[in-house]
């Protein structure tokens, strides 16, 4: 595998690809059950509790298998800290009928649609921006998510090839994922990867992330020559950087499905 440069999300916790799920449990925090995930990461030096600032996911990183048994007790001793962090997490927005979500930087409401073979489409009604969804309501979230991912793939791929052409190159692959710690990445083999949630952001923000990663195909660093390439592609990068810093974490509010509910931890 080649080395990889990535644009990390400013407010997200860093995670290692070597982390692996070890256990789940429920803890009672402020009178409410909270799911806690225990992850094993040999690179960690000690037990660490994390609260994702966007999704509210609580996790404990354990450095060894022996320390996994103590991870939940360790988290239990940090309940006050966890509670304070959870208060700062924006409320989740399920992708169901009636939900209001961002799409291309503008608020859209999800409503039932009829009379088309296409399961999901964008509609405008008396100035309102609407995402129409056909079928039964229990399938709404999945269909909306599929639609958003398809649109993200189409737009991100097109913009990547557009900017790459200006630099006289082309990406080898363009993939779309749901990453918690990065908006995009570029490998030395010219493989680009992006978060599908960028389709929720304004076009100038999506374009910045794409141009940023495309520029890495020429400069695998963040030196002066790299930033000149970015400026040549999109102009001033300050506006999208500010948007991501101030509003980027809110893109993780939109939840396609509820988090898994583990059994309460005994002991």
Describe the protein's architecture and organization:
The structure is a single chain. The protein has two domains: 79 residues, no CATH class; 155 residues, Metalloproteases ("zincins"), catalytic domain (Zincin-like). The protein contains six helices and 14 strands. Helix 4 crosses helix 5 and helix 4 packs across helix 6. The N and C termini lie far apart (43 Å). The relative contact order is 0.16. The C terminus is likely disordered.
Q: Key terms for this structure?
A:
single chain; 267 residues; Zincin-like; 6 helices
Offer a concise description of the structure.
The chain is built from six helices and 14 strands. With 267 residues, it is an alpha/beta fold. The strands form four sheets. The chain has a four-stranded mixed β-sheet, covered by helices on one side. A four-stranded mixed β-sheet has the order 2-3-5-4. Strands 7-8-10-9 form a four-stranded mixed β-sheet.
Instruction: Assign the CATH superfamily of the largest domain.
Output: Metalloproteases ("zincins"), catalytic domain
Share of helical residues: 25-40%
Oligomer: single chain
| CATH class designation of the largest domain | Alpha Beta
Instruction: Please state the average pLDDT score.
Output: 87
Shape: globular
Assess the beta-strand content as a share of residues. 25-35%
**Which strand order spans the largest sheet, edge to edge or round the barrel?**
1-12-13-11
N- to C-terminal distance: 43 Å
Unreliable residue runs? 10-18, 258-267
Order of helices and strands: EEEEEHHEEEEEHEEEHHHE
CATH topology of the largest domain: Zincin-like
Radius of gyration in whole Å, from Cα? 21 Å
Count of structural domains: 2
Main pleated-sheet profile: 4 strands, mixed
Count of helical segments?
Answer: 6
Structural class: alpha/beta
- The total count of strands amounts to 14
CATH architecture of the largest domain: 2-Layer Sandwich
């Amino acid at each position: 595998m080649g080395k990889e440069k990535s644009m990390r999300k400013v407010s997200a916790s860093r995670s290692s690809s070597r982390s692996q799920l070890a256990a789940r449990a429920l803890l009672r925090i402020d009178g409410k059950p909270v799911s806690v995930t225990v992850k094993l990461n040999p690179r960690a030096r000690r037990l660490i509790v994390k609260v994702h600032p966007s999704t509210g996911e609580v996790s404990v990183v354990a450095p060894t298998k022996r320390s996994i048994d103590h991870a939940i007790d360790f988290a239990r001793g940090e309940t006050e800290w966890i509670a304070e962090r959870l208060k700062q997490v924006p409320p989740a927005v399920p992708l169901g009928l009636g939900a209001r979500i961002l799409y291309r930087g503008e608020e859209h409401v999800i409503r039932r649609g009829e009379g088309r073979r296409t399961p999901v489409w964008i509609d405008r009604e008396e100035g309102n921006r609407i995402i129409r969804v056909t079928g039964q309501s229990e399938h709404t979230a999945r269909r909306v998510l599929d639609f958003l991912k398809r649109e993200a793939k189409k737009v991100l791929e097109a913009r990547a090839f557009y900017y790459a052409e200006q630099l006289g190159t082309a990406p080898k692959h363009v993939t779309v994922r749901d990453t918690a710690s990065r908006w995009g990445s570029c490998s030395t083999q010219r493989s680009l990867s992006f978060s599908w949630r960028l389709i929720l952001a304004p076009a100038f923000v999506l374009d910045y992330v794409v141009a940023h990663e495309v520029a890495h195909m020429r400069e695998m660093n963040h030196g002066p020559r790299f930033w000149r390439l970015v400026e040549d592609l999109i102009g001033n990068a300050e506006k999208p950087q500010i948007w991501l810093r101030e509003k980027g974490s809110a893109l993780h509010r939109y939840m396609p499905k509820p988090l898994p509910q583990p059994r309460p931890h005994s002991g």
